Amino acid sequence: MPHLTINGVPLEFTKGQSIIDVALQGGIEIPHYCYHPGLSVPANCRICLAEISQPNPKSGQLEKIPKLMPTCHTPAAEGMVVTTESPKAVANQKAVMEFLLINHPVDCAVCDQAGECHLQDYSYEYGRSHSRFQEDKIKNPKKDVGEHVLLYSDRCIMCTRCVRFTKEVTQTHELMVEGRGGTEMIDVFPGKGLDNELSGNVVDLCPVGALLDKDFLFQQRVWFLKKTPSIDGITASGDNISVEHNEGTVYRVKPRTNLEVNQWWITDEVRYGWKFVHSEQRLTMPVVRGKPAFDREDPSEAWQTSLARAVEVLQAGARSGRLAALISPMLSCEDAFLLGRFVLGLDPSAVLGVGPVPRSGQDRTLAGGFTIHAEKAPNARGVRRVLEALAASQPARKMPAGAAHVTDAEGFVAALTTAGAGTVLVTGNYPSAWVTEPMGAALATRRLVLIDTLPTRLNSHAEVLLPSATWIEKAGCFENARGRLQSFERAILPIDFAKSEAQIALELGARAGQSVDDAFDAARTRTQMAQVKGLEAFVSQVCHPPVAAGRASDMVTADL
Ligand code: SF4
Ligand code: FES
User: Fold this and answer.
1) What are the residue ranges of helices labelled H in 134-242?
2) Structural domains in the chain?
3) Could you tell me the maximum CA-CA distance found in the chain, to the nearest angstrom?
4) Ligand 1 centre and the CA of 157: distance in Å?
5) What is the pLDDT of residues 339-366, one digit of tens each?
6) How far is CA 28 from CA 7, 11, 292, in A?
7) Phi, psi of 387 (to 5 degrees)
8) Contact (CB, 8 A) for 194 and 146
9) Pick from 327, 281, 289: which is nearest to 428 by CA?
């Protein structure tokens, strides 16, 4: 492999990589504003300039290029020696910082970007500690540019990342540069706001606090937020996300870079679709039909009573005929495994179905390669894979000739009648209404144990209602539309007295006398899953989020 040296560190590269690509890959910081690996390279901010020497092709002697060169626009070449630490390169960095801050309002105290702003970071690392600018600053307006985005033009450094995003990735062209020189500004075309399914990404792309998320505006200082790696729990995309939260409340969801799945982006649907997690409608306390509401002061008693009743109902159903279970595609593979194992432990021939899989339109792949999936459930494939393997592993299972072990939601309604199943364990966990007309009619006439997060028309029919946790409140893994298994971590504790479906399954199993773990652990459950024929992938093929490299602060804290 060819190699070059950047700031004294020898690095290998592949042909076609730019110097900044090689540096960032090798853990060497080169300041940059306009450069983004997912966009074209205009080389307009000029802060990444470096002094470069390269071997003369004839003599082989190192020769210095007289001008500073943009590392974002200069391809790496064999034997190059690059430095961003020479007096000339450092003088350029200081000059660029001074220039960018001339008209900047320096309103960090009230800026949402403070704490994750490249202008702040680079001022500290590469700028001057004082301003020589005495004149009046140009003041530019704040603008409402779209459903989710505000533009504070004063803070813009004209890197044009946002403009290139709407031109190259979404190809919707809403943003543009208006004017020239000192009066140029980012703007939308008259009467045409920033309105595309990926619009929130411009906020992430903006290296300063010029483009702001209306939803997050003044909600939290970013240094209070903890980031938990997660996976899109709304659609079948499997987009890699980071859930940002503080003291049990989620404040925002951001994309995590994964070039094999979502690149650097997420849809607005995924970015804002988590709001149901904190809905006031959330089911947070078990309910047993015919009993008064449980005392919120004693959730343990509420759970013990409800679990006991649920097991009674399900065991009676298994004794008197066929049991059925509808497992939602919103659940994790681990939830599905433990619920499936519990139900098959009561009735090895139980009717098993995957809950309704919502769809909207058709899959669409944008010019930049990003796909928006029509399927609005994160784990239909994973739930089906797990239930089929579990059912196939039951030696005592009796199925009519040619019948599938696991049906879809429509087939499930028909199978309830065919199999004469009078008692059903139903799981929901959808962000919005999900009970179809035929499903509601079929379930209303049967004994129900319902595990769900939000109220539906089934609540009044359920003999026992157990409140469950959304994917943000638990760990597990999903299989996305392309068959990729990806794990996610728990970001916040379950709201109020809700529990994950996996934990509920274990507690139901223990009450029914099954041999189960006391507490749910996602990794341990995947090891147990891999013992079942057909589920070996849950140990060998699950993609886990990369372990975050901790970065120690280089600020010196002074005691006052
Ligand atoms: S609004 Fe942000 S992303 Fe757009 S040009 Fe200005 S600084 Fe760059
Ligand atoms: S990052 Fe190279 S010129 Fe902007």
Assistant:
1) 161-164, 201-205
2) 3-95 (3.10.20.740), 107-117+134-224 (3.30.70.20), 304-358+377-540 (3.40.50.740)
3) 93
4) 6
5) 999 999 999 999 999 999 999 999 999 8
6) 8, 10, 63
7) -65, -40
8) yes
9) 327
Q: Whose CA is closest to 294, among 461, 464, 450, 424?
A: 464
Query: With contact defined as beta carbons under 8 Å apart, do 238 and 484 qualify?
Result: yes
Residues lining ligand 2, Cβ inside 6 A: 32-35, 43-48, 70, 72
Secondary structure of 475-512 as H, E, C letters: CEEEECCCCCEEEECCCCCCCCCCECHHHHHHHHHHHC
Rounded CA gap, 310 and 143, in Å?
55
Could you say which ligand is closest to the alpha carbon of residue 35? 2
Q: How confident is the model at residue 554 (pLDDT cuts 50, 70, 90)?
A: low
Residue 383 CA: distances (Å) to CA of 44, 406, 559: 49, 10, 55
pLDDT of 549 above 60: no
Beta strands in 312-430 (DSSP E): 322-327, 351-354, 364-365, 371-372, 406-407, 421-427
Q: How far apart are CA 82 and CA 15, in angstroms?
A: 17
Q: Is 19 in the pocket of ligand 1 (CB under 6 A)?
A: no
Q: What is the Cα gyration radius of the chain?
A: 28
Ligand 2 pocket, mutate which of 21, 47, 205 (most atoms under 8 A from CB): 47
The band of 128, judged by pLDDT with boundaries at 50, 70 and 90, is confident
116 has pLDDT over 80: yes
Q: Which two tokens stand for residue 170?
A: 């979404």
> Could you tell me if residue 196 is left (phi over 0), alpha (psi between -120 and 50 degrees) or otherwise beta?
beta
Around Cβ 166, how many Cβ atoms within 10 Å?
21
Is the predicted pLDDT of residue 548 greater than 90, yes or no? Answer: no
Substitution candidate for ligand 1 out of 159, 177, 264 with most atoms within 8 A of CB: 159
Mean pLDDT over the full length of the chain: 94
Model confidence over 143-181: pLDDT tens digits? 999 999 999 999 999 999 999 999 999 999 999 999 988
d(CA 472, CA 249): 10
Q: Where are the beta strands (DSSP E) in 410-468?
A: 421-427, 447-452, 462-467
| Ligand 2 atom with minimal separation from the 73 CA | 2
CA of 156 to the centre of ligand 1 (A): 5
Dihedrals phi, psi of 182, to nearest 5 degrees? -65, -15
Model confidence at 232: pLDDT above 60: yes
Centre of ligand 1 from the C-alpha of residue 203, in Å: 9
Cβ atoms within 10 A of the Cβ of 55, count?
15
Q: Kindly give the distance from the C-alpha atom of residue 134 to the centroid of ligand 2, in angstroms, as a whole number.
A: 28
3-state SS, residue 441: helix
How buried is residue 246: exposed, middle or buried, by Cβ count under 10 Å (0-12/13-18/19+)?
middle
Residue found by looking up tokens 């390669």 in the block: 369
Q: What value does the mean pLDDT take over residues 261-288?
A: 96
- Residue 551 Cα to ligand 1 middle (Å): 26
